[in-house]
Write a structure and sequence with these properties.
Radius of gyration: 33 Å
Family: Belongs to the CTL (choline transporter-like) family.
Low-confidence stretches: 78-95, 690-697
Largest sheet: 3 strands, mixed
Organism: Struthidea cinerea
Membrane topology: Multi-pass membrane protein
Pfam families: Choline_transpo
Structural class: mainly alpha
Function: Choline transporter.
Length: 697
């Protein structure tokens, strides 16, 4: 590309600018309108109760007010079911499956044929039959043929308002209701292990629910301590940022030393735990032999766990030390850029709070996408089909239960029944549900990337106005952040939509590849797997490159007001003309900011670990008793990282903006009286450390 030439009229972000990429702006507005229409249609047809509440064989909800099954909240089938909210009983041999809403799950073995001759047993059995059976005088075989009652009952337990066989193991023997065999209702004895395969997933769900309940209990007793930990992380991040404003050089070196010390302590602690477990019973069991355990504390009693932690921390410590040794001269140069970024943030302090606006908008995007996805996935309708045992021309056709008895079907096929088959639909809306779900995912990526782009171009405009102010801060706008935000929305919505659209397309392709990879896991075609892995790698690299290009293009948009393609081209060529500076300065500052986040997260994480494990004697009795102490610790660590990332992302955008402005300044001006630099004295010191416009090796 051609270097920028001296322009005596250029004094920073151009205010006299026009709208850019109008076509993309119109396209975004149309897409948002379509997205709203999809949401309204989904909310009109969808019913999230289908995910939560069970249904009977007719597709009617169990235990819901205003429904025929209001008094029977549980769903049971063929082997029966419920709980305090009613359950569903499912008969696995009846096509379609017999599902009945019941008030409680069965607690004993029983078949309909044996209950028929006993009035008390039959009265108990009635609770697990359809409402039509209550006053029925049919013979037993007719009742079973018409699917008004299940052929048998099995002791069951309620899970998610559904009745599942109460499988338990006693001394290694699988049992259901203290029995190892059961009568299948047809005069044959079967082993309860035949029920095991069908209930395996239910047991996994049950264990998961128990784990979730324990985690929820931990949150209820530790939530205020978690909030205190996150507040400490926020205060620490804010203090760190403020100290960078005045003591950037000292703080960077303190940060580097502290990171090394924190990792060093982690290595020491892991070694001590590893040595302490030597000789203890069960501590030498391998992680592969132990397998997955819901109680993660079990892993902390294994030497192999602490050895793995020790190796990971040693490798991380070694990598950081080697990088510091080889980058020691570059770090001195990067510190000068960080000092200038600290001054810029100091003049635009409102920028530290701006990530909250971006976070709020992203939460709106996530909430709209999630709710629309749920309503779309539950917008199927109950479909009824004609079922019969003899030959019938109407078999398998769609029917309506309300008019079925008066239709010609019952005349031509006397044994035909109109039964609930599945949730679906045959309208155009139901046929294109998968397309609407795809559109929902695509719009989520597009809008999320647009929100991030809006935040980046706003911060870039504010910090660029600082750099190109010849007399700082006199030549800066009164409200640089709000001015940049207004310019971005008024003139460059189309450009932001363009950049975010390109990125969204790549991300959707990546999601599709991940889905295909998941579907092909069981495939034996190694070439297909290899090709898919190559495509995933290529699109991952492409996404990273587009993010890098977009970020710098947004900086150019904020400064010059050009369209997206022109800005991306100019930014790319500017960086290529200064590729060594990009590698030396830009990436070193990113590394230093990563160390800053690591320091804050590590410090708060260690404090949370000692507190929740009752190792701080002063507050030993204050820490709440927990099922899993890793729950609040991980929450504090993840929350601390997000908070620290929010603060340092502002610094990162500031450094990138100042760096691009610095390169522009070097090309436009030569430091003479006629062409003076806009850069501060601090950056002129950085310039002295370069040789012919390139950093000193």
């Amino acid at each position: 590309g051609t270097p920028q030439k001296y322009d005596p009229t250029f004094k920073g972000p151009i205010y006299d600018r026009g709208c850019t990429d109008i076509v993309c702006c119109v396209l975004l507005v149309v897409a948002i309108v379509g997205y709203v229409v999809v949401g309204v249609v989904a909310w009109t047809h969808g019913d999230p109760r289908k995910v939560i509440h069970p249904t009977d064989s007719r597709g009617q909800f169990c235990g819901q007010q205003g429904t025929p099954n209001e008094e029977t909240p549980n769903s049971s089938g063929g082997v029966a079911g419920v709980s305090p909210n009613r359950a569903v009983l499912v008969s696995p041999r009846c096509p379609p499956p017999l599902q009945i809403c019941v008030s409680k799950c069965p607690d004993r073995y029983m078949t309909y044929l044996t209950a028929y001759g006993n009035p008390s047993s039959l009265e108990y059995y009635r609770d697990f039959c359809t409402p039509e059976f209550r006053n029925s005088r049919k013979a037993p075989l007719e009742v079973l043929k018409d699917k008004e009652c299940p052929a048998m009952l099995i002791p069951s337990t309620p899970l998610a308002r559904r009745c599942f066989p109460a499988i338990q193991a006693k001394k290694g023997v699988i049992m259901v209701g203290n029995e190892t065999t059961y009568d299948d209702g047809r005069g044959r004895r079967r082993n309860v292990t035949e029920l095991l395969e069908g209930a395996k997933k239910a047991n996994v769900v049950l264990e998961t629910r128990q784990l979730a309940m324990k985690i929820f209990e931990d949150y209820t007793v530790s939530w205020y301590w978690i909030i205190i930990g996150l507040v400490i992380a926020m205060v620490a991040s804010l203090i760190f940022i403020v100290l960078l404003r005045f003591l950037a050089g000292i703080m960077v070196w303190v940060m580097i030393v502290m990171v090394i010390l924190v990792l060093g302590y982690g290595i020491f602690h892991c070694y001590m735990e590893y040595a302490k477990l030597k000789g203890e019973a069960g501590s030498d069991v391998s992680l592969t032999d132990l397998g997955f355990q819901t109680d993660l504390r079990v892993y902390l009693h294994l030497r192999q766990t602490w050895l793995a932690f020790l190796i990971i921390l040693c490798v991380l410590e070694l990598v950081i030390v080697l990088l510091l040794v080889f980058l020691r001269k570059r770090i001195l140069i990067a510190i000068a850029l960080i000092k200038e970024a600290s001054r810029a943030v100091g003049h635009v302090m409102s920028s530290l709070l701006f990530p909250l606006c971006t976070f709020f908008l992203l939460c709106l995007c996530i909430a709209y996408w999630a709710s629309t996805a749920v309503f779309l996935s539950t917008s199927n309708e109950a479909v009824y089909k004609v079922f019969n045992e003899s030959a019938c021309p109407f078999s398998g056709q769609t029917c309506r239960p309300e008019t079925f008895n008066t239709s010609n079907v019952t005349k031509l096929c006397p044994d035909a029944q109109c039964l609930f088959a599945f949730y679906g639909g045959e309208t155009a809306y139901h046929k294109y549900l998968i397309v609407l779900q795809f559109f929902n995912v695509f719009m989520f990526f597009w809008l999320a990337n647009f929100v991030i782009a809006l935040g980046q171009v706003t911060l870039a405009g504010a910090f660029a106005s600082y750099y190109w102010a010849f007399k700082k801060p006199d030549d800066m706008p009164a409200f640089p952040l709000f001015s940049a935000f207004g310019r971005a929305l008024r003139y460059h919505t189309g450009s932001l939509a363009f950049g975010s659209l390109v990125l969204a397309i790549v991300q959707v392709i990546r999601v599709t590849l991940e889905y295909l990879d998941h579907r092909l896991k069981a495939a034996e075609n190694k070439f297909a797997k290899f090709l898919l892995s190559c495509l995933k790698c290529c699109f991952w690299c492409l996404e990273k490159f587009i993010k890098f290009l977009n970020r710098n293009a947004y900086i150019m948009i904020a400064i010059y007001g050009t369209n997206f393609c022109t800005s991306a081209r100019n930014a790319f060529f500017l960086l290529m003309r200064n590729i060594i500076r990009v590698a030396v300065l830009d990436k070193v500052t990113d590394f230093l900011f990563f160390l800053g986040k690591l320091l804050i997260v590590g410090s708060v994480g260690i404090l949370a670990f000692f507190f929740f494990t009752h190792r701080i004697k002063l507050v030993q009795d204050t820490a709440p008793p927990l099922n899993y102490y890793w729950v609040p610790i991980l929450t504090v660590i993840v929350g601390s990282y997000l908070i620290a990332h929010g603060f340092f992302s502002v610094y990162g955008m500031c450094v990138d903006t100042l760096f691009l402005c610095f390169l522009e300044d070097l090309e436009r001006n030569d430091g003479s009286a006629e062409k003076p630099y806009f850069m501060s004295q601090n950056l002129r010191k950085l310039l002295k450390k370069t040789n012919k416009g390139q950093p000193d090796a």
